[in-house]
């Protein structure tokens, strides 16, 4: 079983991101479960959503306390909320930011993880560019597909198209694909470094 | 309301006998083939205004709908005296659910009929004043707001009679009930109380709102039939004296109903979509005292010394109604009613009439702490 | 057809396929997505003929359902928590009148203190209303239970509530197999009312019944629930035959045949329990689980048969009978009367507190070692409780409990001046 925890703020589509990720897994014939942390939803308040993916039926219902991957939609949550609780040394971390881990003040923190599994992607900027709106949730899934290989970018695109339609779908897919390429390039850099 | 020239009528009561009318103008009750929706054998008190009103109303509804009525009844006197286990006096399909939900149950029945394509069958919801203006009020308002195809009838005997005559939101000022006894500084029901369900119904702008009393039963039948010509939410508020609860003689029921109208205390009118379209004029105005005296629930006002201040205030309410609804002949020009075009003094939202102000001042002094 | 979708959506679409004729609902978290979807389906005409009525309260919702059902229409509503309480009078009325209304309850805690998260206190509080109560473990079961519920309700003329954990199931996306309209039509015939308001054949429904006959009328509701003990498995079997999967029924045992310790529970927590059972089984522990699916009627014989051989029974429940302890465990105990075994009541998950495999591991190990108290509150922070009790004792005006405790655990930052 692979467990993903997504952090963001209310209004950024964190829950939708988890749902779309679960749909992408479903498209690939896998079992997936997505659910929010059920906090009082207010725009701007920290929100957590979970996604479990497995090849057999998922029975667990508890929140994910030991995620295999964490996606951070809003870097202003860093140093405010414990986003990395329960992560093991092989975990994947994807942060939506234009800055580097050093610039985010996480230089020491990242040393305990595998460098090719800790990546950043400017998802909000990509969203603005391809979608015209600063909503990074679907974009990040594109990046996550590259980072973890858990789902393919095609499945992510299909999941996006199931949720959205018309220009919104097109824009999100384009942004997700751009994020996919960005992260893939980043990973190659890191591996060659 | 339709008018017809009548040569002969009963002196004093002005009642017109069926024989003097054209067959089609006669009361439903005059017909041998009337449906007897509420048939004999029920356990109502002698002189019960509600039993009288319900029988007339439902038979009129049945005639108007070719005998296709389903009734939903709130808990209360009518429900209790009409269905003493194992008997039932109802000869139409009838359901009693709870005290506060008759309007909502009616909504459900109407919805089911609509789904089944049987909108030829009509729905009547009914209850007493308690079930209508108090505990059933939210459901009533909801039904109005959605304009559900229901005629809701309130039989108003101005208190919770079935449980022993306790005050309701419809209990008029100064009336004695089991919970508003004539003791203390403010004998009887405190002033300022009493929801006007008909006015509130009008505020919902539903297709039809009407009031009636059991003193003019043909008028009551007419209003039910009129209501059945229309679709959507309709409301009929019927004044029904309760000899037991009011302490009146059981053979005075109709007379007292006539008096409440002739004093102006109970305006008899029709309204459509929030505007008054017809008023039943006072034939010969009587002072409220004449109405109050035959009822022991007001007996405390006539002790030694009499409560002339309270009686005066009740008179002021009657006068205000007369002015507001144009209840006296030749007074329509200055009538002010909710939804009326004219907006002279006395209407809602306009400055209070000078008389009212002084009455209010009197009250403020004499009834400290009263809301 | 397999779909990855939200639990509420799956339930709403399945309910729509059951061809309800009147849907009357009032919004309350976490049921909102169900009624919103049904409202859309009625508006677009996908669900027709159907009247969707937005009512002014839950009391009105159940009342509208009563009127509609009595007039021969298949009626449905959904609610949770406070809404269920607000319609309590109407619940008893519907059951007493024998109206086959089906209602989804998205299980949620009851206040005060107000809480929107999952536990079973709402439906447990109405267990004596006369309604049949079925509890779903998964979203698949939640949707499957609805056609079964309509069939059951209409066969018995008794209302049925389908209970699914609020948020945990309603708001979870998971894979479900949605039936299609033809399958549902084959399984669920049109509603044939046993009593109906019809001018062609007038009846009086809801008359007062005095001491001479009340007991008999009341007993009929009980008799119908006893009949349901046979009908529920029958309908579940018929469903399995037609749809190819097990859903519903009275109960379901998991690795319990040779278990020395059996954990009993209702609803979605069974998923987490089964994961924990598997882990302990891998360690050689003889532990199993029993899911109760029909809580009313309570399957006394079946529960007894499933648990009689165990050494110990742990009932894990998401509701608390204030002043005494467990609710489900009291019912289980009744099923086990006369049998000697260790019985433990564990109150867990109140107000949406997560039940984790980690906590369950510890709990089950303690149970197996017979170190548990008869009544245990899982993951209770006793220090906080004690501090509040001390506050109550020492302060002449300590203030509201909830605010004090929230301040204690650091959630409320502001202080009065």
Sequence-ordered SSE layout with sheet pairings:
The complex is a heterotrimer of chains A (193), B (371) and C (417).
Chain A: E1 2-9, H1 14-27, E2 31-36, E3 46-54, E4 69-72, E5 92-96, E6 118-121, H2 123-131, H3 137-148, H4 153-163, H5 166-192
Parallel strand pairs in A: 1-4, 4-5, 5-6
Antiparallel strand pairs in A: 1-3, 2-3
Chain B: H1 49-64, E1 69-73, H2 77-82, E2 94-96, H3 102-115, E3 122-128, H4 129-134, H5 137-146, E4 151-156, H6 197-203, E5 208-213, H7 217-229, E6 234-239, H8 243-246, H9 253-263, E7 269-272, E8 275-279, H10 288-292, H11 308-325, H12 354-366
Parallel strand pairs in B: 1-2, 1-3, 3-4, 4-6, 5-6
Antiparallel strand pairs in B: 5-7, 7-8
Chain C: E1 2-6, H1 7-17, E2 22-25, H2 32-43, E3 51-54, H3 58-70, E4 75-79, H4 81-86, H5 88-97, E5 102-107, H6 121-125, E6 132-135, H7 139-156, E7 160-165, E8 173-177, H8 181-187, E9 204-205, H9 214-243, E10 251-254, E11 261-265, H10 269-282, E12 287-292, E13 294-296, H11 300-307, E14 312-317, H12 328-335, E15 342-347, H13 357-368, E16 375-377, H14 382-394, H15 401-408
Parallel strand pairs in C: 2-3, 2-4, 4-5, 5-7, 6-7, 11-12, 11-14, 14-15, 15-16
Antiparallel strand pairs in C: 1-8, 6-13, 10-12
